[in-house]
Amino acid sequence: xxxxxxxxxIDGGFFLKRLSRLVEAGQCDTxxxxxxxxxxxxxxxxxxxxxxxxxxWQQHLYRCFFYDAQPYDGKAHHPVSNKSIDFAKSDVAQQxxxxxxxxxxxxxxxxxxxxxxxxxxxxxxxxxTKSILKTRQALAPLQALQQQLPAGANPQAVQLQLSAxxxxxxxxxxxxxxxxxxxxxxxxxxxxGVDMRxxxxxxxxxLKKQVSTIILVAGDSDFVPAAKLARREGMxxxxxxxxxxxxxxxxxxxxxxxxxxxxxxTEQATAPLPQAVPDQPAT
Length: 283
Fold this sequence. Notes:
By secondary structure, the protein is an alpha/beta fold. The chain has helices at residues 12-22, 31-50, 91-104, 126-138, 144-148, 164-178, 194-207, 224-232; strands at residues 6-11, 61-70, 75-77, 84-86, 109-124, 185-192, 213-217, 236-240, 256-257. It comes from Hylemonella gracilis.
């Protein structure tokens, strides 16, 4: 039986994106600091549900599951910088591996890792898409070249007559394309297997009666089918969206909404986090 224990499931990608908005600057830059933030989130949740002095808070924690994906380790040629990229050696990949190593050392923390696959080729940033489509209008005067260039004609012998407005539009289009930076394109990478692992663990914890409460730290509605199963089996299911707004209809599928961090701009509501207790890594 669960003996009233609590399982905390953290969508790692979502957690890392939100973290810098929830803690002070310089408190989530290193793997050790991030691991401490994970511990702080768990501590605050346990204190809200169980109360007490907090000295024995980890006795109420069944386990903290941290879900993420192994960084992409392939290679690709960047279309803007014209350089080869080895993603396995990137700063992002090395930082994520360092974080995983640190979390493996934490007491009652278990990693659940999916993978990242190359889903499609390089794509332009969505914020530039509308601007790209507008360049078609600026290129309209170039259609006159089709009439002035018979098959086999020498392009150097053609003169293109442009109005001042057309010339200005072409110049702006040229400057736009010249201004595209390496960061404006991205490789189509997609995370695989993370949501499935979350759902499987929710079902397993529920059907085996290993805990009485599940706290899910996530920001989307992919968890709804698993949450329905848990609640039908008598599980208390709490969502922590880390102060991100959620759709009103999601309240139908959870038993409570609370956060393991204070709302940005407010004072801390729970006791200070005690130091970590050394222990063997969870499996």
